[in-house]
Specification:
Number of domains: 2
Order of helices and strands: EHHEHEHHEHEEHEHHEHEEEHEH
CATH topology of the largest domain: Alpha/beta knot
Mean pLDDT: 94
Radius of gyration: 20 Å
Number of helices: 12
CATH superfamily of the largest domain: SPOUT methyltransferase, trefoil knot domain
Strand order of the largest sheet: 8-7-6-11-9-12-10
Distance between the termini: 50 Å
Strand content: 15-25%
């Protein structure tokens, strides 16, 4: 394999990877994102996402030569680092020794299915929640995720890890105004709220072309979003807790949509 070796922490690629790992602004400006770890790199490879750069440690390559050779065929450039330098660009405490840099436009926007069933997330701030929701959405057969553009970056390392690669496979639609997007696509919208007077989500029959909206972890949905949606629904709770974690609420909502 034709490696390019890097030994200096001041190398321009090292600085680029570090910025992509930590900054949503850097990812937007460069049009790139980071995949770290064998599982998520393999998922991306299976999805047909080309690697602009493949970065390996010497120890990872020696233990995983066959898979590295496979990924190299899908990469424009391949770099080799020692373990110590690799740790400086890793976003994990115990790095495996493999990173791929991909161009954002490798993720192709999928055609919107107006007869599908969707989960919409407004101002979701926790990457772990977005990752967990995407995994559940794929598992249950949800048509896609509609995400407000003030939510956490879906291509952040934390989201990609938490999603186990599903965020790369599941149709994702990012919108500045989530309700405008929903209306333009003629979806029947259900705002999930904490309100005992709202209709129980267990009593709703979700037809094709519907979407459930989940709001911010701390504040829920914006009042205007709730007012503009077609229906307000609630998850019935019998305990003392007043609300559920966003990913749990989304999981219940998606289950009810698909059952």
């Amino acid at each position: 394999m034709n490696f390019k070796k890097i030994s200096s922490k001041d190398n321009s690629l090292i600085k680029l990877v570090s910025s992509l790992q930590t900054s949503a602004k850097a990812r937007r400006e460069n049009g790139m994102f980071v995949l770290e770890g064998l599982r998520v790199c393999d998922d991306a490879n299976i999805c047909g996402i080309m690697f602009d750069k493949l970065i390996l440690t010497e120890s990872f390559y020696s233990k995983n030569t066959e898979v590295c050779e496979k990924f190299a065929k899908n990469s424009s450039e391949v770099y080799l680092l020692d373990d110590k330098l690799f740790k400086k660009i890793s976003d994990t405490t115990s790095p495996q020794g493999i990173i791929a840099i991909c161009k954002t436009d490798e993720i192709k926007q999928k055609e919107f299915d107006k007869a599908g069933k969707y989960i919409a997330l407004e101002n979701l701030s926790d990457p772990s929640n977005l990752g967990a929701i995407s995994r559940t959405a794929e598992a249950l057969g949800i048509s896609g995720i509609i995400l407000s553009d003030n939510s956490c970056d879906p291509l952040s390392p934390k989201v990609l890890r938490a999603s186990m690669g599903t965020i790369l496979r599941l149709p994702l639609y990012i919108s500045e105004n989530i309700m405008d997007f929903i209306k333009q696509n003629n979806l029947v919208s259900y705002s999930c709220v904490v309100d005992r007077n709202a209709e129980k989500i267990t009593d709703v029959k979700f037809e094709k072309g519907s979407v459930v909206l989940i709001g911010n972890e701390a504040n829920g949905l914006n009042e205007q979003t709730v007012d503009e949606s077609d229906f307000a629904v609630t998850i019935p709770m019998n305990g003392v807790a007043e609300s559920l974690n966003a990913s749990v609420a989304a999981a219940i909502a998606m289950w009810e949509m698909m059952r």
